[in-house]
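To fix ideas, we quote verbatim one protein's residues and fold tokens.
>
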Amino acid sequence: MSDRPRLVGINHVALEVGDVDAALEFYGRFFTFDDVERHGDAAFIELGDQFIALMQGRFQPPDTTRHFGLVVDDKDATRRALEAAGVAILPGRFLDFLDPWGNRVQIVQYDQIRFAKTSEVLEEMGLEL
């Protein structure tokens, strides 16, 4: 047994955006999210037992390889929603795109990854996956 703590998950990801309201509108064009909590220049999008924090203030150039992955229930529906919203999908074998502030997002489907939420969390989210 190690005396060092073991990493067991990610609680949240913080994204720097130029405008929080515009970011909520952008992501809301192709994702459904119910619970959003606002505090000053930040918004927190609930993802069951995790969340995305949208933080106002992005000054660095667009991401190239640095990215984060969002888990969805239907990757094909996400692709269609991105295309319908006019969001450019980046070339490559993954479903990646840049938001208007240069954050690179990769879409992964829940049943295609090694990831499991408890039945309680799934029920709270209204999901049957």
